[in-house]
C-alpha cells in the first residue's frame, strides 16, 4: 500500500512540475504514472551504478554532481516515453530539483 501511495504522489509531483516549469511537459495523468514508474526503476537500478562510477567527482563537488545525474536520468526517460518531453538539460535540472523537494516533503508526510 505504501509503495502505491508513493507512486501516485510521484505522478502528481510530475504533473505539478509540468505545471510550474515551462519546457517540462507531461501529457496526462496516465503518462505521469508511467513516467513515475520508469523513473523509480531507473533510479533503483541505473542511478547507483552511475553514482559509483562518478564517485570522485561527486566527492569533489560535495554531492552536488548527483543533481546532474538526476537531470540526465530524467532527460533519458523523457527520450523514450511518448507524452513526456523536456526541452533541455537546464529544464531537466530544474525539474529534478523541484521533484526532489516535492519527494522530500511527501516522504516526510508518508513516513510512519
Summarize the structure.
Pfam families: Phage_holin_4_2 (PF04020). The chain crosses the membrane at residues 7-24, 30-50, 57-78, 84-106. It contains 5 helices and 2 strands.
Verbal overview:
- With 112 residues, the protein is mainly alpha-helical.
- The chain has one domain.
- The protein is 77% helix and 5% strand.
- It contains five helices and two strands, in the order αβαααβα.
- It has a two-stranded antiparallel ribbon with strand order 1-2.
- α4 crosses α5.
- The longest helix is centred in the middle third of the chain and has 25 residues.
- The protein is globular and about 40 Å long.
- Pfam families: Phage_holin_4_2.
- This is Phage holin family protein.
